[in-house]
């Protein structure tokens, strides 16, 4: 009986935590980290501020968890898109289209993930986020080199450079809230050239 009671308490705590994260994600997508105060999150989640602090002792803890949750969703979406393609060129195209397309559909959240000034805890998570993208792309580059589809190159170095270029290319349009109609197509051309994809 005590075990079942403990299970119910844990389920309730988990549900409350998820409600807080969902509320914080919504606010970040609307107003960025600057607008994601603990009080605003508590109000959106329909709970007391003290309840938020029970799960996240500081705002830094909360925004770091929001970043981890949002960035993992993005990495997963990109990985799924790339996995559906056959050639390295198609996979890299899927990475760029998915990453950039999702960013441009939710520019405030994307800017928060990529560049908005935030707590050092978020900056640390950004490195993890970029590393996850780089590892994903490096795997595809390594396969392309092994199959002869791409010229010889260091997959890890190439992937890290591509992630940096892709992120930097998106920051301006996201900050301005506008991207040219050919932004994604031009990015695909640039990154294919950088990889050595045959025209």
β-strand number: 0
Q: Which sheet architecture does the biggest sheet show?
A: none
Residue windows where pLDDT falls under 50 for at least 5 positions: none
Shape: elongated
Can you give a write-up of this model?
The chain has 9 helices and no strands. By secondary structure, it is an all-alpha fold. The chain is elongated. The mean pLDDT is 90.
Q: What characteristics describe this protein?
A:
9 helices, elongated
List the helices and strands and how they pair.
Layout: H1 2-31, H2 38-45, H3 49-55, H4 59-83, H5 88-105, H6 107-114, H7 120-147, H8 155-176, H9 183-195
Helix pairs in contact: 1-2, 1-4, 1-6, 2-3, 4-5, 4-7, 5-6, 5-7, 5-8, 5-9, 6-8, 7-8, 8-9
In short:
This protein is mainly α and 199 residues long. The chain has helices at 2-31, 38-45, 49-55, 59-83, 88-105, 107-114, 120-147, 155-176, 183-195. The chain has 9 helices and no strands.
